[in-house]
Amino acid sequence: MHEDHDPVRRAPSGACDVHFHVFGEPGRYPYRDPKLRYTPPVAPLSSYLQTAARIGIERFVFVQPSAYMRDNDCMLDAMATMDPAVCRAIVDVDENAPDAVFDDFHARGVRGVRINVSPVHPHEPGLAARMMPRIDRMEQRCKDRGWSLDFLLPGWLTEEMLPRMAKLEVDYTMAHLGMFLAKDGPDQPGFRRLLDLLSTGSGRAHVKLTGFYRISRTPGYPDVPAMIRALVRTRVDRLVWGSDDPHISFAAETGSISLYDLFCSAVDDDADLRTILVDTPARLYGFAPTGASR
């Protein structure tokens, strides 16, 4: 979405968007999900980069869209056009794929794997248990390569998964604030358990400040900053930010600059902003320290 205003605060040097997507022409990059909930737009990398430049984003973590399932070609083709020093990717891949597939991904800048369940998936007894073999296998394969796991789950499933996440031996992220609904506030039981994990756990847990419109239905998302501030107070060094660009049908009236401004309104300390946008993504995804030679 085009936005005719510049961000209220420009991002610091070395800032990273850890969660955005690209969509190509469907004739070249066909959608693979037979249960697709939305019609993806054609969203080329060039359009995203224009918005990112206005914010001041200089580093990028592509995330495989669910529409393509485990066909990562569109994302990897776009990524190949960029300076490899400033971009990484999170793929969706079969946990039993050959080592050569993982090695090829690593050479292309992949640094993580998605564990993805639709955020609107209704409560399903036994689903968490059925996911464990994939998580167990991916944990080892990511550990071997220094990759992270990236969880996108409905809030009820995030809560069920927290005990297993607490035992992971790899870094991991939880997209969209774990998908806990903002209307229920930061004191809701599941979110409190998430905060406890951040404050007392192994230090491998990270929360993505992304997709605010996925956890709030109030225009302008005024209930989201309280959730962000609770996370900042708990472990600011375990938070990262992403635009979730493009915003497709979930929030057609919303743009990445407006979402970035909302994030900045909740994180008003420059040091905290730098930690979230620069330092933690650099550590998590293996970017060079700011100012270091490439």
Description:
The chain has about 290 residues and is an alpha/beta fold. Helices cover about 40% and strands about 15% of the residues. The longest helix is centred in the middle third of the chain and has 19 residues, at about 125-145. It has a single domain (about 15-285), classed as Alpha-Beta Barrel (TIM Barrel). Strands 1-2-3-4-5-6-7-8 form an eight-stranded parallel beta sheet. It contains ten helices and eight strands. The mean pLDDT is about 95. The chain is globular.
Q: What class, by secondary structure content?
A: alpha/beta
Strand residue content: 5-15%
Q: How much is the average pLDDT?
A: 94
Q: Tell me what the CATH architecture is.
A: Alpha-Beta Barrel
Low-confidence regions? none
Order of helices and strands: EHEHEHEHEHEHEHHEHH
- CATH topology, what is it called? TIM Barrel
**Tally of structural domains:** 1
Biggest sheet strand order reads 1-2-3-4-5-6-7-8
Write out the CATH superfamily name: Metal-dependent hydrolases
Task: Give a topology summary.
Layout: E1 16-20, H1 45-55, E2 59-63, H2 73-79, E3 87-91, H3 99-107, E4 110-116, H4 127-145, E5 148-152, H5 155-165, E6 172-174, H6 189-200, E7 205-209, H7 212-215, H8 224-235, E8 239-241, H9 256-266, H10 270-285
Parallel strand pairs: 1-2, 2-3, 3-4, 4-5, 5-6, 6-7, 7-8
Helix pairs in contact: 5-6, 6-8, 8-9
